[in-house]
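Our consortium's second objective concerns turning raw sequence data into structural hypotheses that experimental partners can test. To show how far this objective has progressed, the report includes one record in full. It was chosen at random from the queue rather than selected for favorable results. The single chain below, 161 residues long, was entered without modification.
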Amino acid sequence: MDLKEIQNLIKFVAKSGASEVALEMDDVKITIKTGSEASTETTIVQQVPMAQQMMAQPVAPAAAVVPVVEVAEAAPADDNSKYITIKSPIIGTFYRKPSPDKDVFVKVGDEISSGSVVCIIEAMKLFNEIESEVSGTIVKVLVDENSPVEYDQPLFLVDPS
């Protein structure tokens, strides 16, 4: 059976108003389903099992995960509470250097002032210089070179004192 014959069969089934036609030949099996009744039934069948699974499964894992997350967040919060975080204002790729053959904009221990360029984030082939809004000393670089970053993702920790 060639493509034209299959297309003609589909058109014929659509015009006839039949909701389902099955055709079996020696090496070909074709089933054509049309009409809103079949799609409504399919949607209901797919949604019911998913809803039951969602209600049954998350109860136990969520209770086990929450305490672990809270403990993990509590320790770093105390260590970094005195530092200010420079966050990404856009989504893109993080670069510490203006070009591959140049030095990094800032490294750990460097003094920066408000308005100093600390990195570049490439977004849609545009290289955006990210400037510091605070003055202080770079304590930690939180992102690796050439890494994708998301909006509001922490990039640097700065000691304002």
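The partners drew two points from this record. Residues 36-54, 56-75 have pLDDT under 50 and may be disordered. The radius of gyration is 29 Å. Both points have been shared with the crystallography group to help prioritize constructs.
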